[in-house]
């Protein structure tokens, strides 16, 4: 049970970080990307 929840949180965090990085790659000198 705890393992499944941990995996979901980890995957969500990974997707969020990957999404932020892809936004940075698309707009390197453009708009500010919200990290918080």
From TrEMBL:
<protein>
    <submittedName>
        <fullName>Uncharacterized protein</fullName>
    </submittedName>
</protein>
<keyword id="KW-1133">Transmembrane helix</keyword>
<keyword id="KW-0812">Transmembrane</keyword>
<keyword id="KW-0472">Membrane</keyword>
<feature type="transmembrane region" description="Helical">
    <location>
        <begin position="6"/>
        <end position="24"/>
    </location>
</feature>
């Amino acid at each position: 049970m705890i393992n499944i929840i941990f995996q979901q949180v980890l995957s969500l965090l990974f997707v969020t970080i990957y999404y932020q990085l892809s936004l940075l790659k698309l707009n390197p000198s453009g708009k500010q990307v919200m990290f918080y």
